[in-house]
Specification:
By secondary structure, the chain is α/β, with parallel strands linked by helices. It has eleven helices and eight strands. Its main location: cytoplasm.
Length: 295
């Protein structure tokens, strides 16, 4: 489907065999190839340009070892740079508070409910927690049923108030119940709309203000490319979330959204979702994502 960056660079360097240092080869055309690969992988153009300018500086003067071709060396420098950009910050969940309150936000269809189930299952089976899942979507009764089905599958309690149209109250009542029942984590699955709108943003911001969550995870569909970045920015401006969950990475997207979101909002990607099965929760590995972006 995509020609890999390594392949492209190998052909760009073909006529330059035997050169000893990166400065002596045609860096300009290489940088253009890298930029193209990043843009193909859904990295925003300006960010791709900033990155390749940095990569060019790093590459100049690098010694080319005999064991590695200049093309391979450029790919390595690029990969390291991308991985560093996407990593760095501690991406563990903050689970000390009792109960720990985790707010899940994002657009409808992004994978919030599925991720909430995966997270609850992970915390129950791997972290010895007693989670309570909260259905705080007051617009779609089907969302409550969906969460109940997930809860049953993984043996986790689900809190809902189908008649209540006040998400803040539902969240507050859920936390009261969690305290009474000894739940150690409360995962609040909020309502999502198909596009960002003011009512939704105000609602989720009100829930945040009322329950003061320990973590706010922004869930975003990696298949949505550049739109994912705009959505991330809007949610972050309003919610100042603590981490990103990148879903549907089992699809054929190259995942440039991961890089662009990280660059734009500077929040760690804490988890990725790679399917609908509830028994796997995938942590985010910057090196793997860098490899995937470059192809
Ligand atoms: P929500 O509206 O944000 O709560 O989204 P859902 O959790 O209901 O997910 C929307 C659709 O995407 C459903 O059909 C899910 O089964 C599917 N889905 C969620 N996460 C993933 C994932 O990681 N990979 C794939 N392939 N599908 C997913």
């Amino acid at each position: 489907m995509f020609e890999s960056l390594s392949e492209r660079l190998e052909s760009a360097f073909k006529q330059l065999k035997g050169e000893g240092r990166i400065s002596e080869i045609n860096v300009a055309s290489t940088v253009k190839e890298i930029r193209r690969a990043l843009v193909d992988a859904d990295v925003n153009y300006k960010i791709a340009k900033d990155l390749t300018d940095k990569i060019r500086e790093k590459a100049l003067g690098e010694k080319v070892l005999t064991a590695i071709s200049p093309g391979q060396l450029m790919v390595k420098i690029t990969k390291d740079e991308l991985a560093e950009l996407m990593g760095g910050t501690e991406a563990e969940l903050e689970l000390k508070a009792n109960p720990t309150v985790i707010l899940i936000a994002g657009l409808q269809g992004s994978g919030k409910t599925t991720f909430s189930g995966k997270l609850a299952n992970f915390l129950k089976t791997k972290k010895n927690k007693k989670p309570l899942l909260v259905a705080a979507d007051i617009y779609r009764p089907a969302a409550i049923d969906q969460l109940k089905v997930l809860g049953e599958q993984i043996g986790v309690e689900v809190y809902s108030e189908p008649e209540n149209k006040n998400a803040v109250q539902i969240a507050e009542n859920a936390i009261k119940q969690a305290k009474a029942n000894g739940n150690t984590v409360v995962i609040i699955d909020t309502a999502g709309r198909l596009a960002v709108d003011e009512v939704m943003m105000a609602e989720v911001a009100n829930v945040k203000a009322a329950v003061k969550p320990n973590e706010i995870l922004f869930v975003v569909d990696s298949m949505t490319g550049q739109d994912a970045v705009n959505t991330a920015k809007t949610f972050n401006d309003r919610l100042d979330f603590s981490g990103v969950v990148l879903t549907k990475l089992d699809g054929d997207t190259r995942g440039g959204a991961a890089l662009t979101i990280r660059y734009t909002v500077d929040k760690p990607i804490k988890f990725v979702s790679m399917g609908e099965k509830l028994d796997t929760l995938d942590v985010f590995y910057p090196e793997r994502m860098a490899q995937r972006i470059l192809g």
